[in-house]
Amino acid sequence: MAGPAGLRRSAFTQRLTRYMPLTPGERDAIERLERRERRVAAGTRVITEGAENNALYIVQHGWLHSATSLKSGSRQITGFHYAGDLVGISSIAWSIAAATLTTIEDCILFEIAKEELGRVFAAQPRLAGLLYAIAAAEGVAANDRLTSVGRMGADTRLATLLLDMLARLRASAGGVIDSFELPLTQTDIGDAAGLTKVHVNRTLRSMEERGWIERHGKRLRIKDERKLSGEVGFVDRYSEVATDWLPPPPNVPQGVLETA
Known about the structure:
Layout: H1 11-16, H2 24-33, E1 37-40, E2 45-47, E3 55-61, E4 64-69, E5 75-81, E6 86-87, E7 100-103, E8 107-113, H3 114-123, H4 125-151, H5 154-172, E9 179-181, H6 186-193, H7 197-209, E10 213-216, E11 219-222, H8 225-232
Antiparallel strand pairs: 1-8, 2-7, 3-6, 3-8, 4-5, 4-7, 9-11, 10-11
């Protein structure tokens, strides 16, 4: 979305200010991280599992997924990534990528060297703390999805996955209410939920018949989010992230702090 000066609004900044007002210095630091733009076509491998990697990416537009290869030759999709995400954190502790990152649709990314992020952490410790808190919340959400795959039936697995997508999209896209465009194949969904393509097809139809969802082309609507969340035990890990433990910004009057 364009701002008053005709510049594109940063999806990353928009997401972060949902949780904490940013100082001008923190916003400037994010702007410096977003200098190297890449436009990447759908189906492109951005990072390859097992290959040397020294980059992270901020997602400005589009969907991606992270996946790991299994010995059977199949894959397990471990996470989906959307506008406002910082992607590649799982590989930050090593020089070798822990997962393959692939674009699901045409994407706009900002490429960041790990060293650049390290400099931002040194100069903007509050920003570093916020990113740590968000990464922790995403880790808990990933554990929730893992539990659903390992211990729940197909309907509950897919419902948990779709509710997680809705909650995550809402965290950065304020216009998302109860529906969203789903640019995934049934194979993609199955690889994330631990189901075959045929089982995904059958389960989605079952969810429609039970009144959980409705579909119009690629658009999917969750009909009663509160009721469905209660039935499957879904907890929204993205709506709030605690930041009260962070120190106040030094020498910045409260009125100067900026929100989205």
